[in-house]
Protein backbone atom coordinates (compact mmCIF):
# COMPACT_ATOMS: atom_id res chain seq x y z
CA UNK A 1 0.00 0.00 0.00
CA UNK A 2 3.06 2.19 0.36
CA UNK A 3 2.83 3.43 -3.24
CA UNK A 4 -0.57 5.03 -2.62
CA UNK A 5 1.02 7.62 -0.32
CA UNK A 6 2.50 9.31 -3.36
CA UNK A 7 -0.64 8.98 -5.53
CA UNK A 8 -2.30 12.01 -7.03
CA UNK A 9 -5.97 12.39 -7.93
CA UNK A 10 -5.28 11.15 -11.48
CA UNK A 11 -3.34 8.14 -10.22
CA UNK A 12 -6.17 7.10 -7.93
CA UNK A 13 -8.96 7.34 -10.45
CA UNK A 14 -7.01 5.13 -12.86
CA UNK A 15 -6.24 2.46 -10.31
CA UNK A 16 -8.28 -0.70 -10.57
CA UNK A 17 -7.94 -1.59 -6.87
CA UNK A 18 -9.05 1.92 -5.92
CA UNK A 19 -12.08 1.70 -8.21
CA UNK A 20 -12.98 -1.67 -6.69
CA UNK A 21 -12.66 -0.25 -3.22
CA UNK A 22 -14.81 2.78 -3.94
CA UNK A 23 -17.36 0.94 -6.02
CA UNK A 24 -17.84 -2.23 -4.02
CA UNK A 25 -16.05 -1.54 -0.73
CA UNK A 26 -13.68 -4.40 -1.53
CA UNK A 27 -10.89 -4.14 1.05
CA UNK A 28 -8.58 -7.17 1.03
CA UNK A 29 -7.28 -7.75 4.59
CA UNK A 30 -8.49 -4.30 5.59
CA UNK A 31 -5.54 -2.67 3.81
CA UNK A 32 -7.37 0.44 2.60
CA UNK A 33 -8.70 1.09 6.09
CA UNK A 34 -5.26 0.55 7.55
CA UNK A 35 -3.70 2.90 5.01
CA UNK A 36 -6.30 5.57 5.73
CA UNK A 37 -5.62 5.26 9.47
CA UNK A 38 -2.02 6.33 8.88
CA UNK A 39 -3.36 9.77 7.91
CA UNK A 40 -1.48 9.93 4.58
CA UNK A 41 -0.41 13.37 3.35
CA UNK A 42 -2.31 12.95 0.07
CA UNK A 43 -5.60 12.28 1.82
CA UNK A 44 -7.25 15.17 0.00
CA UNK A 45 -6.24 13.73 -3.37
CA UNK A 46 -7.73 10.46 -2.25
CA UNK A 47 -10.97 12.11 -1.12
CA UNK A 48 -11.43 14.06 -4.32
CA UNK A 49 -10.80 10.93 -6.38
CA UNK A 50 -13.31 9.06 -4.27
CA UNK A 51 -15.90 11.80 -4.79
CA UNK A 52 -15.23 11.76 -8.50
CA UNK A 53 -15.65 8.00 -8.88
CA UNK A 54 -18.74 7.97 -6.65
CA UNK A 55 -20.30 10.71 -8.70
CA UNK A 56 -19.66 8.90 -11.95
CA UNK A 57 -21.08 5.63 -10.68
CA UNK A 58 -24.15 7.51 -9.52
CA UNK A 59 -25.12 7.33 -13.17
CA UNK A 60 -28.53 5.83 -13.72
CA UNK A 61 -28.96 2.12 -13.99
CA UNK A 62 -30.72 0.94 -17.13
CA UNK A 63 -32.23 -2.51 -16.82
CA UNK A 64 -34.56 -4.55 -18.90
CA UNK A 65 -37.15 -6.54 -16.97
CA UNK A 66 -36.59 -10.25 -16.47
CA UNK A 67 -39.57 -11.13 -18.67
CA UNK A 68 -38.03 -9.39 -21.66
CA UNK A 69 -34.67 -10.96 -20.96
CA UNK A 70 -36.36 -14.39 -21.07
CA UNK A 71 -38.28 -13.44 -24.21
CA UNK A 72 -35.16 -12.41 -26.08
CA UNK A 73 -33.48 -15.67 -25.03
CA UNK A 74 -36.39 -17.64 -26.46
CA UNK A 75 -36.08 -15.70 -29.69
CA UNK A 76 -32.38 -16.52 -29.78
CA UNK A 77 -33.13 -20.23 -29.37
CA UNK A 78 -35.86 -20.20 -32.02
CA UNK A 79 -33.65 -18.35 -34.44
CA UNK A 80 -30.78 -20.79 -33.87
CA UNK A 81 -33.11 -23.75 -34.39
CA UNK A 82 -34.31 -22.15 -37.63
CA UNK A 83 -30.79 -21.47 -38.81
CA UNK A 84 -29.67 -25.02 -38.06
CA UNK A 85 -32.69 -26.47 -39.78
CA UNK A 86 -32.01 -24.29 -42.77
CA UNK A 87 -28.39 -25.40 -42.71
CA UNK A 88 -29.55 -29.01 -42.63
CA UNK A 89 -31.82 -28.42 -45.59
CA UNK A 90 -29.05 -26.68 -47.48
CA UNK A 91 -26.66 -29.51 -46.61
CA UNK A 92 -29.17 -32.09 -47.82
CA UNK A 93 -29.75 -30.07 -50.97
CA UNK A 94 -26.01 -29.89 -51.52
CA UNK A 95 -25.64 -33.63 -51.10
CA UNK A 96 -28.47 -34.28 -53.51
CA UNK A 97 -27.26 -31.80 -56.07
CA UNK A 98 -23.77 -33.28 -55.93
CA UNK A 99 -25.22 -36.76 -56.40
CA UNK A 100 -27.25 -35.43 -59.31
CA UNK A 101 -24.20 -33.72 -60.77
CA UNK A 102 -22.11 -36.87 -60.44
CA UNK A 103 -24.83 -38.94 -62.03
CA UNK A 104 -25.14 -36.43 -64.83
CA UNK A 105 -21.39 -36.49 -65.28
CA UNK A 106 -21.34 -40.27 -65.40
CA UNK A 107 -24.26 -40.33 -67.81
CA UNK A 108 -22.69 -37.72 -70.05
CA UNK A 109 -19.32 -39.46 -69.82
CA UNK A 110 -20.93 -42.80 -70.55
CA UNK A 111 -22.96 -41.34 -73.38
CA UNK A 112 -19.83 -39.77 -74.80
CA UNK A 113 -17.86 -42.98 -74.36
CA UNK A 114 -20.66 -45.00 -75.90
CA UNK A 115 -20.96 -42.74 -78.93
CA UNK A 116 -17.42 -41.54 -79.45
CA UNK A 117 -15.40 -43.12 -82.22
CA UNK A 118 -11.78 -43.96 -82.69
CA UNK A 119 -10.51 -42.27 -85.82
CA UNK A 120 -7.51 -43.53 -87.78
CA UNK A 121 -6.39 -41.75 -90.92
CA UNK A 122 -3.53 -41.98 -93.35
CA UNK A 123 -1.80 -39.08 -95.06
CA UNK A 124 -0.98 -38.81 -98.75
CA UNK A 125 1.21 -41.66 -99.89
CA UNK A 126 0.90 -43.42 -96.53
CA UNK A 127 -0.32 -46.96 -96.00
CA UNK A 128 -1.31 -48.32 -92.66
CA UNK A 129 -2.54 -51.53 -91.15
CA UNK A 130 -5.06 -51.34 -88.31
CA UNK A 131 -6.16 -54.17 -86.04
CA UNK A 132 -9.66 -53.82 -84.66
CA UNK A 133 -10.59 -54.97 -81.12
CA UNK A 134 -12.04 -58.20 -82.59
CA UNK A 135 -8.72 -58.92 -84.37
CA UNK A 136 -10.10 -58.04 -87.80
CA UNK A 137 -7.39 -56.36 -89.88
CA UNK A 138 -7.90 -53.32 -92.03
CA UNK A 139 -5.26 -52.13 -94.49
CA UNK A 140 -5.74 -48.45 -95.18
CA UNK A 141 -4.70 -46.97 -98.47
CA UNK A 142 -3.27 -43.46 -98.66
CA UNK A 143 -5.51 -40.48 -97.86
CA UNK A 144 -8.10 -42.66 -96.17
CA UNK A 145 -9.84 -42.81 -92.83
CA UNK A 146 -11.71 -45.34 -90.71
CA UNK A 147 -13.77 -44.81 -87.60
CA UNK A 148 -15.14 -47.30 -85.13
CA UNK A 149 -16.79 -47.13 -81.72
CA UNK A 150 -14.43 -46.59 -78.82
CA UNK A 151 -16.76 -48.76 -76.72
CA UNK A 152 -16.43 -51.57 -79.26
CA UNK A 153 -17.83 -54.33 -77.06
CA UNK A 154 -20.74 -52.20 -75.79
CA UNK A 155 -22.28 -52.23 -79.24
CA UNK A 156 -24.26 -55.13 -80.56
CA UNK A 157 -22.70 -55.07 -84.03
CA UNK A 158 -19.17 -54.59 -85.26
CA UNK A 159 -19.26 -51.38 -87.29
CA UNK A 160 -16.64 -49.46 -89.23
CA UNK A 161 -17.01 -46.23 -91.20
CA UNK A 162 -14.71 -45.77 -94.17
CA UNK A 163 -13.60 -42.87 -96.30
CA UNK A 164 -11.07 -43.64 -98.99
CA UNK A 165 -9.89 -47.14 -99.71
CA UNK A 166 -9.27 -50.14 -97.50
CA UNK A 167 -8.86 -53.89 -97.63
CA UNK A 168 -10.86 -55.67 -94.95
CA UNK A 169 -9.91 -59.01 -93.43
CA UNK A 170 -12.87 -59.58 -91.15
CA UNK A 171 -12.55 -62.16 -88.40
CA UNK A 172 -15.19 -64.81 -88.70
CA UNK A 173 -17.10 -65.15 -85.43
CA UNK A 174 -20.12 -67.08 -86.59
CA UNK A 175 -20.21 -70.77 -85.59
CA UNK A 176 -23.54 -71.90 -87.01
CA UNK A 177 -24.35 -70.41 -90.42
CA UNK A 178 -28.04 -71.11 -89.80
CA UNK A 179 -28.06 -68.99 -86.69
CA UNK A 180 -26.26 -65.68 -87.10
CA UNK A 181 -26.21 -63.61 -83.98
CA UNK A 182 -26.16 -59.84 -84.19
CA UNK A 183 -22.80 -59.66 -82.46
CA UNK A 184 -21.30 -61.84 -85.15
CA UNK A 185 -22.18 -59.39 -87.88
CA UNK A 186 -19.77 -56.86 -89.23
CA UNK A 187 -20.88 -53.77 -91.13
CA UNK A 188 -18.63 -51.50 -93.13
CA UNK A 189 -20.21 -48.15 -94.00
CA UNK A 190 -18.94 -46.32 -97.05
CA UNK A 191 -20.99 -43.27 -97.86
CA UNK A 192 -24.49 -44.44 -98.52
CA UNK A 193 -23.47 -48.06 -98.95
CA UNK A 194 -23.44 -50.68 -96.20
CA UNK A 195 -21.44 -53.86 -96.57
CA UNK A 196 -22.61 -56.60 -94.25
CA UNK A 197 -20.38 -59.52 -93.59
CA UNK A 198 -19.71 -62.36 -91.23
CA UNK A 199 -16.09 -62.96 -91.93
CA UNK A 200 -14.31 -62.46 -95.19
CA UNK A 201 -11.84 -60.51 -97.26
CA UNK A 202 -12.96 -57.63 -99.39
CA UNK A 203 -11.85 -54.26 -100.63
CA UNK A 204 -13.83 -51.05 -100.51
CA UNK A 205 -12.86 -48.03 -102.49
CA UNK A 206 -14.86 -44.96 -101.59
CA UNK A 207 -13.51 -42.01 -103.49
CA UNK A 208 -15.11 -39.15 -105.40
CA UNK A 209 -18.60 -40.17 -104.23
CA UNK A 210 -18.23 -43.58 -105.84
CA UNK A 211 -18.03 -46.79 -103.85
CA UNK A 212 -16.45 -49.87 -105.34
CA UNK A 213 -16.73 -53.09 -103.36
CA UNK A 214 -14.71 -56.08 -104.48
CA UNK A 215 -15.19 -59.42 -102.72
CA UNK A 216 -12.22 -61.75 -102.63
CA UNK A 217 -13.40 -64.44 -100.24
CA UNK A 218 -16.53 -65.40 -98.32
CA UNK A 219 -19.93 -63.80 -98.66
CA UNK A 220 -21.10 -60.28 -98.17
CA UNK A 221 -24.34 -58.47 -98.72
CA UNK A 222 -24.38 -54.91 -99.95
CA UNK A 223 -27.23 -52.52 -99.31
CA UNK A 224 -27.97 -48.85 -99.63
CA UNK A 225 -28.84 -46.67 -96.67
CA UNK A 226 -32.50 -46.28 -95.90
CA UNK A 227 -35.47 -48.55 -95.69
CA UNK A 228 -36.70 -50.75 -98.50
CA UNK A 229 -33.27 -51.27 -99.97
CA UNK A 230 -32.84 -54.85 -101.14
CA UNK A 231 -29.51 -56.30 -100.10
CA UNK A 232 -27.39 -57.69 -102.89
CA UNK A 233 -25.62 -60.89 -101.93
CA UNK A 234 -22.19 -61.00 -103.51
CA UNK A 235 -20.14 -64.04 -104.43
CA UNK A 236 -16.33 -64.15 -104.35
CA UNK A 237 -14.85 -62.57 -107.47
CA UNK A 238 -17.79 -60.21 -107.76
CA UNK A 239 -17.60 -56.46 -107.60
CA UNK A 240 -20.18 -53.78 -107.11
CA UNK A 241 -19.96 -50.17 -108.13
CA UNK A 242 -22.26 -47.71 -106.45
CA UNK A 243 -22.49 -44.41 -108.21
CA UNK A 244 -25.16 -41.75 -108.05
CA UNK A 245 -27.63 -44.04 -106.26
CA UNK A 246 -27.20 -46.92 -108.71
CA UNK A 247 -25.66 -50.31 -107.98
CA UNK A 248 -23.69 -51.69 -110.93
CA UNK A 249 -22.76 -55.33 -110.69
CA UNK A 250 -19.41 -56.33 -112.13
CA UNK A 251 -16.72 -58.95 -111.96
CA UNK A 252 -13.32 -58.26 -110.50
CA UNK A 253 -11.76 -59.77 -113.61
CA UNK A 254 -13.46 -57.19 -115.78
CA UNK A 255 -12.30 -54.20 -113.74
CA UNK A 256 -9.77 -51.94 -115.41
CA UNK A 257 -7.81 -51.67 -112.20
CA UNK A 258 -7.24 -54.72 -110.01
CA UNK A 259 -8.67 -54.08 -106.53
CA UNK A 260 -5.70 -55.19 -104.44
CA UNK A 261 -2.90 -53.78 -106.55
CA UNK A 262 -2.81 -50.73 -104.32
CA UNK A 263 -1.61 -52.82 -101.40
CA UNK A 264 1.59 -53.37 -103.38
CA UNK A 265 1.72 -49.75 -104.53
CA UNK A 266 0.80 -50.74 -108.04
CA UNK A 267 -1.96 -50.35 -110.56
CA UNK A 268 -2.64 -53.47 -112.53
CA UNK A 269 -4.40 -52.04 -115.49
CA UNK A 270 -6.24 -53.49 -118.37
CA UNK A 271 -7.76 -50.79 -120.50
CA UNK A 272 -7.55 -48.17 -117.74
CA UNK A 273 -7.70 -44.56 -118.88
CA UNK A 274 -5.08 -41.94 -118.18
CA UNK A 275 -7.82 -39.98 -116.40
CA UNK A 276 -8.33 -42.87 -113.98
CA UNK A 277 -4.59 -43.08 -113.30
CA UNK A 278 -4.48 -39.34 -112.65
CA UNK A 279 -7.49 -39.60 -110.30
CA UNK A 280 -5.75 -42.37 -108.45
CA UNK A 281 -2.57 -40.31 -108.23
CA UNK A 282 -4.48 -37.36 -106.84
CA UNK A 283 -6.29 -39.57 -104.32
CA UNK A 284 -3.06 -41.16 -103.20
CA UNK A 285 -0.66 -38.23 -103.15
CA UNK A 286 -2.95 -35.24 -102.91
CA UNK A 287 -1.31 -33.37 -105.81
CA UNK A 288 -3.27 -32.32 -108.86
CA UNK A 289 -2.09 -33.17 -112.33
CA UNK A 290 -3.01 -30.92 -115.24
CA UNK A 291 -2.64 -32.23 -118.78
CA UNK A 292 -2.35 -29.64 -121.53
CA UNK A 293 -3.95 -31.90 -124.12
CA UNK A 294 -7.34 -33.21 -122.81
CA UNK A 295 -7.61 -35.86 -125.53
CA UNK A 296 -4.75 -37.66 -123.83
CA UNK A 297 -7.00 -38.33 -120.84
CA UNK A 298 -8.99 -40.94 -122.71
CA UNK A 299 -5.93 -42.88 -123.74
CA UNK A 300 -6.14 -46.46 -122.50
CA UNK A 301 -3.32 -48.28 -120.88
CA UNK A 302 -2.58 -51.93 -120.16
CA UNK A 303 -0.07 -53.44 -117.81
CA UNK A 304 1.30 -52.94 -114.35
CA UNK A 305 2.16 -49.44 -113.27
CA UNK A 306 4.18 -48.78 -110.14
CA UNK A 307 2.75 -46.02 -108.06
CA UNK A 308 5.13 -46.57 -105.12
CA UNK A 309 6.33 -42.97 -105.06
CA UNK A 310 5.04 -39.70 -106.39
CA UNK A 311 8.11 -39.28 -108.57
CA UNK A 312 8.03 -42.76 -110.11
CA UNK A 313 4.35 -42.39 -110.92
CA UNK A 314 4.94 -39.00 -112.56
CA UNK A 315 7.90 -40.36 -114.50
CA UNK A 316 5.80 -43.25 -115.73
CA UNK A 317 2.96 -40.93 -116.75
CA UNK A 318 5.29 -38.55 -118.53
CA UNK A 319 6.75 -41.46 -120.46
CA UNK A 320 3.35 -42.83 -121.38
CA UNK A 321 2.16 -39.46 -122.62
CA UNK A 322 5.46 -38.37 -124.09
CA UNK A 323 5.27 -35.20 -122.06
CA UNK A 324 7.44 -33.06 -119.79
CA UNK A 325 6.61 -32.47 -116.14
CA UNK A 326 6.61 -29.07 -114.51
CA UNK A 327 5.64 -28.41 -110.92
CA UNK A 328 4.19 -25.16 -109.64
CA UNK A 329 2.58 -24.69 -106.19
CA UNK A 330 2.06 -28.45 -105.73
CA UNK A 331 0.39 -28.86 -109.12
CA UNK A 332 2.06 -30.95 -111.82
CA UNK A 333 1.68 -29.79 -115.38
CA UNK A 334 2.16 -32.40 -118.13
CA UNK A 335 3.07 -30.73 -121.43
CA UNK A 336 3.16 -32.71 -124.63
CA UNK A 337 6.57 -32.66 -126.30
CA UNK B 1 -18.11 -20.23 -13.29
CA UNK B 2 -15.09 -18.31 -14.48
CA UNK B 3 -15.48 -16.46 -17.78
CA UNK B 4 -12.60 -18.33 -19.42
CA UNK B 5 -14.08 -21.72 -18.53
CA UNK B 6 -17.55 -20.60 -19.53
CA UNK B 7 -16.33 -19.31 -22.88
CA UNK B 8 -14.29 -22.47 -23.41
CA UNK B 9 -17.19 -24.84 -22.89
CA UNK B 10 -19.42 -22.61 -25.02
CA UNK B 11 -16.90 -22.90 -27.84
CA UNK B 12 -16.95 -26.66 -27.33
CA UNK B 13 -20.67 -26.54 -28.02
CA UNK B 14 -22.17 -26.39 -24.51
CA UNK B 15 -25.62 -24.86 -24.77
CA UNK B 16 -25.87 -24.36 -21.01
CA UNK B 17 -22.60 -22.41 -20.97
CA UNK B 18 -23.97 -20.34 -23.84
CA UNK B 19 -27.13 -19.60 -21.86
CA UNK B 20 -25.09 -18.71 -18.80
CA UNK B 21 -23.09 -16.21 -20.83
CA UNK B 22 -26.37 -14.73 -22.03
CA UNK B 23 -27.78 -14.45 -18.51
CA UNK B 24 -24.58 -13.02 -17.17
CA UNK B 25 -24.25 -10.26 -19.77
CA UNK B 26 -27.75 -9.51 -21.00
CA UNK B 27 -28.27 -6.54 -18.69
CA UNK B 28 -24.81 -5.11 -19.42
CA UNK B 29 -25.52 -5.29 -23.12
CA UNK B 30 -29.02 -3.91 -22.79
CA UNK B 31 -27.82 -1.01 -20.69
CA UNK B 32 -24.99 -0.14 -23.07
CA UNK B 33 -27.26 -0.49 -26.08
CA UNK B 34 -29.94 1.73 -24.58
CA UNK B 35 -27.46 4.44 -23.76
CA UNK B 36 -26.24 4.49 -27.34
CA UNK B 37 -29.52 3.87 -29.11
CA UNK B 38 -32.57 4.78 -27.09
CA UNK B 39 -34.89 2.19 -28.58
CA UNK B 40 -35.58 -0.88 -26.47
CA UNK B 41 -36.93 -3.21 -29.17
CA UNK B 42 -34.11 -2.40 -31.55
CA UNK B 43 -31.55 -3.00 -28.83
CA UNK B 44 -33.17 -6.35 -28.00
CA UNK B 45 -33.10 -7.27 -31.70
CA UNK B 46 -29.43 -6.47 -31.81
CA UNK B 47 -28.74 -8.58 -28.73
CA UNK B 48 -30.73 -11.43 -30.29
CA UNK B 49 -28.77 -11.22 -33.55
CA UNK B 50 -25.54 -10.99 -31.60
CA UNK B 51 -26.20 -14.23 -29.73
CA UNK B 52 -27.51 -16.10 -32.77
CA UNK B 53 -24.38 -15.14 -34.68
CA UNK B 54 -22.27 -16.05 -31.67
CA UNK B 55 -23.69 -19.57 -31.58
CA UNK B 56 -23.71 -20.30 -35.30
CA UNK B 57 -20.26 -18.80 -35.74
CA UNK B 58 -18.62 -20.27 -32.64
CA UNK B 59 -16.26 -22.45 -34.70
CA UNK B 60 -14.48 -19.28 -35.85
CA UNK B 61 -14.18 -17.62 -32.44
CA UNK B 62 -10.97 -17.44 -30.48
CA UNK B 63 -10.56 -18.92 -27.04
CA UNK B 64 -8.70 -16.06 -25.44
CA UNK B 65 -11.30 -13.32 -25.84
CA UNK B 66 -12.29 -11.22 -22.85
CA UNK B 67 -15.96 -12.11 -22.86
CA UNK B 68 -17.48 -8.85 -21.70
CA UNK B 69 -15.27 -6.81 -24.00
CA UNK B 70 -15.99 -9.12 -26.91
CA UNK B 71 -19.75 -8.93 -26.37
CA UNK B 72 -19.80 -5.15 -25.94
CA UNK B 73 -17.69 -4.67 -29.05
CA UNK B 74 -19.94 -7.02 -31.05
CA UNK B 75 -23.06 -5.24 -29.86
CA UNK B 76 -21.56 -1.88 -30.72
CA UNK B 77 -20.86 -3.06 -34.27
CA UNK B 78 -24.35 -4.48 -34.51
CA UNK B 79 -25.90 -1.22 -33.35
CA UNK B 80 -23.93 0.82 -35.84
CA UNK B 81 -24.77 -1.60 -38.64
CA UNK B 82 -28.47 -1.62 -37.83
CA UNK B 83 -28.85 2.11 -37.35
CA UNK B 84 -26.93 2.79 -40.54
CA UNK B 85 -28.57 0.16 -42.73
CA UNK B 86 -32.16 -0.02 -41.61
CA UNK B 87 -34.04 2.95 -42.96
CA UNK B 88 -37.21 2.14 -41.02
CA UNK B 89 -35.36 3.05 -37.87
CA UNK B 90 -34.43 6.43 -39.17
CA UNK B 91 -36.46 8.11 -36.45
CA UNK B 92 -34.07 6.53 -33.99
CA UNK B 93 -30.87 8.31 -33.15
CA UNK B 94 -28.76 7.57 -36.17
CA UNK B 95 -25.45 9.00 -35.11
CA UNK B 96 -25.01 6.24 -32.57
CA UNK B 97 -21.35 7.03 -32.11
CA UNK B 98 -22.26 10.56 -31.11
CA UNK B 99 -24.98 9.70 -28.65
CA UNK B 100 -24.47 8.48 -25.14
CA UNK B 101 -27.06 8.78 -22.49
CA UNK B 102 -26.16 8.74 -18.81
CA UNK B 103 -27.93 10.48 -15.97
CA UNK B 104 -25.87 11.24 -12.91
CA UNK B 105 -27.63 11.47 -9.57
CA UNK B 106 -26.36 13.74 -6.76
CA UNK B 107 -28.82 12.12 -4.36
CA UNK B 108 -27.48 8.59 -4.79
CA UNK B 109 -27.04 6.51 -1.67
CA UNK B 110 -23.25 6.64 -1.40
CA UNK B 111 -23.00 10.30 -2.22
CA UNK B 112 -25.47 11.13 0.50
CA UNK B 113 -23.82 8.77 2.94
CA UNK B 114 -20.50 10.55 2.57
CA UNK B 115 -22.03 14.03 2.48
CA UNK B 116 -20.74 14.65 -1.00
CA UNK B 117 -23.96 16.00 -2.52
CA UNK B 118 -22.68 19.55 -2.89
CA UNK B 119 -19.49 18.45 -4.57
CA UNK B 120 -21.35 15.95 -6.68
CA UNK B 121 -23.80 18.55 -7.98
CA UNK B 122 -20.96 20.67 -9.27
CA UNK B 123 -19.25 17.66 -10.73
CA UNK B 124 -22.40 16.50 -12.44
CA UNK B 125 -22.93 19.86 -14.01
CA UNK B 126 -19.49 19.51 -15.56
CA UNK B 127 -20.02 15.85 -16.47
CA UNK B 128 -23.26 16.65 -18.26
CA UNK B 129 -21.36 18.94 -20.54
CA UNK B 130 -19.00 16.25 -21.66
CA UNK B 131 -19.24 14.96 -25.23
CA UNK B 132 -20.94 11.65 -25.93
CA UNK B 133 -17.52 10.15 -26.56
CA UNK B 134 -16.19 11.31 -23.21
CA UNK B 135 -19.25 10.01 -21.41
CA UNK B 136 -18.89 6.70 -23.18
CA UNK B 137 -15.26 6.42 -22.12
CA UNK B 138 -16.18 7.13 -18.49
CA UNK B 139 -19.03 4.66 -18.61
CA UNK B 140 -16.90 1.86 -20.07
CA UNK B 141 -14.11 2.60 -17.61
CA UNK B 142 -16.11 2.91 -14.37
CA UNK B 143 -19.26 0.91 -15.04
CA UNK B 144 -17.95 -1.89 -17.24
CA UNK B 145 -14.41 -1.60 -15.87
CA UNK B 146 -12.75 -2.07 -19.21
CA UNK B 147 -9.09 -1.11 -19.54
CA UNK B 148 -8.11 1.91 -21.57
CA UNK B 149 -6.63 -0.45 -24.15
CA UNK B 150 -9.95 -2.20 -24.56
CA UNK B 151 -11.87 1.07 -24.67
CA UNK B 152 -9.52 2.34 -27.34
CA UNK B 153 -10.08 -0.78 -29.42
CA UNK B 154 -13.83 -0.60 -28.91
CA UNK B 155 -14.10 3.02 -29.98
CA UNK B 156 -11.52 2.75 -32.74
CA UNK B 157 -9.31 5.25 -31.01
CA UNK B 158 -5.68 5.16 -30.04
CA UNK B 159 -5.01 4.45 -26.37
CA UNK B 160 -3.49 7.90 -26.21
CA UNK B 161 -6.72 9.34 -27.59
CA UNK B 162 -8.76 7.65 -24.89
CA UNK B 163 -6.49 8.95 -22.15
CA UNK B 164 -6.78 12.37 -23.63
CA UNK B 165 -10.56 12.16 -23.72
CA UNK B 166 -10.68 11.08 -20.12
CA UNK B 167 -8.07 13.50 -18.81
CA UNK B 168 -9.69 16.45 -20.40
CA UNK B 169 -12.66 15.66 -18.23
CA UNK B 170 -10.56 14.79 -15.23
CA UNK B 171 -8.47 17.95 -15.40
CA UNK B 172 -11.50 20.14 -15.40
CA UNK B 173 -12.99 18.09 -12.60
CA UNK B 174 -9.86 18.27 -10.52
CA UNK B 175 -9.75 22.03 -10.79
CA UNK B 176 -13.38 22.22 -9.79
CA UNK B 177 -12.90 20.05 -6.76
CA UNK B 178 -9.96 22.02 -5.43
CA UNK B 179 -11.61 25.40 -5.64
CA UNK B 180 -13.90 26.99 -3.13
CA UNK B 181 -17.33 28.18 -4.07
CA UNK B 182 -16.34 31.75 -4.72
CA UNK B 183 -13.89 30.76 -7.38
CA UNK B 184 -16.16 28.15 -8.82
CA UNK B 185 -18.36 30.41 -10.89
CA UNK B 186 -15.39 31.91 -12.62
CA UNK B 187 -13.97 28.57 -13.46
CA UNK B 188 -17.24 27.28 -14.61
CA UNK B 189 -17.27 29.74 -17.44
CA UNK B 190 -13.77 28.69 -18.36
CA UNK B 191 -14.76 25.08 -18.12
CA UNK B 192 -17.70 25.51 -20.44
CA UNK B 193 -15.40 27.25 -22.79
CA UNK B 194 -13.03 24.32 -22.64
CA UNK B 195 -15.69 21.74 -23.49
CA UNK B 196 -17.31 23.64 -26.28
CA UNK B 197 -14.13 24.31 -28.04
Beta content of chain B comes to under 5%
Number of helices of chain A: 7
What is the percent of helical residues of chain A?
25-40%
Instruction: Evaluate the radius of gyration of chain A.
Output: 49 Å
Oligomer: heterodimer
Overall average pLDDT of chain B:
80
Number of strands of chain A: 18
The CATH topology name of the largest domain in chain B reads Rna Polymerase Sigma Factor, Chain: A
Number of domains of chain B: 2
Full CATH superfamily name of the largest domain in chain B: RNA polymerase sigma factor, region 2, helix turn helix motif
The helix/strand series of chain B, from N terminus to C terminus, equals HHHHHHHHHH
Order of SSEs of chain A: HHHHHEEEEEEEEEEEEEEHEEHEE
First and last CA, distance of chain B: 47 Å
Biggest sheet record of chain A: 13 strands, mixed
CATH topology of the largest domain in chain A: Jelly Rolls
The biggest beta sheet of chain B reads: none
Topology:
The complex is a heterodimer of chains A (337) and B (197).
Chain A: H1 9-13, H2 16-24, H3 31-37, H4 43-56, H5 66-115, E1 117-121, E2 128-131, E3 137-140, E4 145-149, E5 158-169, E6 186-190, E7 193-197, E8 201-207, E9 210-217, E10 220-224, E11 232-234, E12 238-243, E13 246-251, E14 266-273, H6 274-285, E15 288-291, E16 300-306, H7 310-321, E17 323-328, E18 331-336
Parallel strand pairs in A: 5-6, 15-18
Antiparallel strand pairs in A: 1-4, 2-3, 3-5, 4-5, 5-8, 6-7, 7-10, 8-9, 9-12, 10-11, 12-13, 14-16, 17-18
Chain B: H1 3-11, H2 15-36, H3 40-56, H4 67-85, H5 109-113, H6 117-127, H7 132-142, H8 148-154, H9 159-178, H10 181-195
